[in-house]
Amino acid sequence: MKEHKPINVRSIVAHTVLIILAFLCLFFFYILIINSTRSHAELQKGFSALPSTHFLENFMSVANDGTFPMLRGILNSLIVSSCCAAICTYFSALTAYGLYVYQFKLRNAAFTFIMMILVMPTQVTAMGFLRLITKMGMYDTLLPMIIPSIASPAVFYFMYSYLQSSLPLALVEAARIDGSGEFRTFNSIVLPIMKPAIAVQAIFVFVGSWNNYFIPALVLQSKNKMTVPILIATLRGADYMNFNMGKVYMMITVAIVPIIIIYLFLSKFIIAGVALGGVKE
Amino acid sequence: MDAKRAKRVDYSKFGYFFILPFFVTFFVFSFIPLVDTIRYSFFEYYRSGLKEVGPNFVGLGNYIALLKSDLLRYAGNTFTLWMLGFVPQIIISLVLAAWFTDARLKIHGEQFFKVVIYLPNLIMASAFAMLFFTMFSNSGPVNSILMDMGFAKKPIDFMGTVGGTRALVGLMNFLMWFGNTAIMLMAAIMGISPDLFEAASLDGCTHTQIFFKITLPLIRPILSYTLITSMIGGLQMFDVPQILTNGQGSPDRTSYTLIMFLNSHLKASNYGMAGALSVYLFIVSAILCFIVYRMLNDDGEKKSKRSKKKEAR
After folding, report:
1. What is the pLDDT of residues A58-108, one digit of tens each?
2. Distance (Å) from the alpha carbon of A101 to chain B's nearest alpha carbon
3. Is residue B240 part of a domain?
4. What ipTM goes with this model?
């Protein structure tokens, strides 16, 4: 009995702290969802923990608002994030494979170089980047958010580690003996083997790109090109006090909820991915 | 043997094709911009109204002008805001990781807690900041809850005070990152041989002793890795204070960060100053990058040495 007691106290403390932290994490999202179901008048009266009935009304007023084209923004964000996830994972896998399988002369130099820039912030080159894409005619288009993701050192590093642990070189050798070309070997044999790594990284790249604010804020100008984070920033900058608060909460909900839904379905997978890769932007 | 080697040399050239897209993209979208940024940092080059001034070569003029302006103050702000999030983050993460990996302390609903604490990491920082702005505003739900419960007589002006704004930024950064760090540390602790913990508890070590004498020293590499990557993240702090204070860093620029400073120069087409500021940031991040590189490399070497030792046994 005596021996069990300290363990019980620790257990109670641990569970209490965990419950408080979980409460902190969920509390704000709970209020957000509740408030997005309430009308402006109800919100003015003060806080209530119970949802109201104005969800659809608020949603329609967000959807029909021309000054903050939220649905258009979601579409833009979806385009950018999906393209980024696709090309970033494909080309990172390609680069990782190239450096893992082939023993060419500059191999070590190339690998060392990528490792050196692994965690380099993109902000330090933002000024030259802005001037470059203006010269290239890509200012105020979605392309500057997509194309640079071909060179993502952190995703490369994850793919490289994955190849080290799961691609036997004998398999590549065997494919060669069977007469498969080098690029065909990559596309039809190596890519399927890398599926788990690609899936994990695709999610992280998608989320990162969906949430990205700094670069789009510099590059995008016209309303119908804006991605969700820029619209949120515009909302913050607008004359805020005259707004229908139910609508404001609904806009934040619309920006956050798609990711939460993805997360609820894939949480196990995502958490395993976090534990696996120490490197994440 | 010879024929085989000849064949391999033949194939090895393909490596260049595979890595070409990465390096071309890097060269065009990162290297050229970097050179351009460094070049213009030595020029007087800005726009006032519709007129463009420069570029005129001014040497280190921009660098000196920046040092004379509020650069160091903004660097201090960035550091303070980062520390306010990082200190609670690392402490809580360590404690959580120790609890989750303690076999004798059975945590109920472990998976549920992991899912919940990681959730804020995926939330759009700008939307999260907007949410905090509405919630903690004078007529927002947090104030109305505090008043209903009798903790406050009149609304607390969270964003009107230096401490309040900074605490909110710190709280957001803490919430967004502690789950991520906890899960990473958990993975590191689970990598420690369970024999060590067993031996220690057989020898009569307390939980505290095990934590400080075994767990902590053994996960030191990943702790320092977390510290450095978090510093790099802190250096880039932008979304949260930018949205929370509408780009003002209010009150009185006390939560104005370095990247907010860079952003305002860029928005004003103030290329010379933006360039010099970028170079300062580049130097600091290059040092941090190099430390990360050394850490990962040392780690790799140690691992290969360890596996060789195992083979020898």
Report:
1. 888 888 887 888 889 999 999 999 999 999 999 999 999 999 999 888 999
2. 8
3. yes
4. 0.87
If you average pLDDT over residues A101-117, what whole number do you get?
90
CA distance B19 to chain A (A): 5
Residues A83 and A64: their CA atoms lie apart, in Å, by 27
Global confidence as pTM: 0.89
B286 within domain boundaries: yes
Query: pLDDT tens digits for B246-293?
Result: 888 888 888 999 999 999 988 888 888 899 999 999 999 999 888 888
What does the alpha-carbon distance between residue B302 and residue A111 come to, in Å, rounded to a whole number? 19
**Minimal Cα distance from B102: which residue of A?**
A11
The number of distinct structural domains making up chain B is 1
pLDDT of amino acid B214: 87
The CATH number for B272's domain is 1.10.3720.10
Domain containing residue A257: CATH number:
1.10.3720.10
- Rounded to the nearest angstrom, the gap between the alpha carbon of residue A22 and the centroid of all alpha carbons in its chain is 22
Q: Is the pLDDT of residue A121 over 60?
A: yes
Q: Is residue B19 part of a domain?
A: no
Instruction: Kindly state the tokens that stand for A269.
Output: 């997978």
Among A25, A102, A116, select the one facing B293 at the smallest CB separation. Answer: A116
> Whole domain around residue A84: which residue ranges?
59-277
Neighbouring residues of A189: CB distance < 8 A, sequence distance ≥ 6: A171, A172, A175, A180
A14 touches chain B (CB under 8 A): yes
Residue B44, strand partner residues: B56
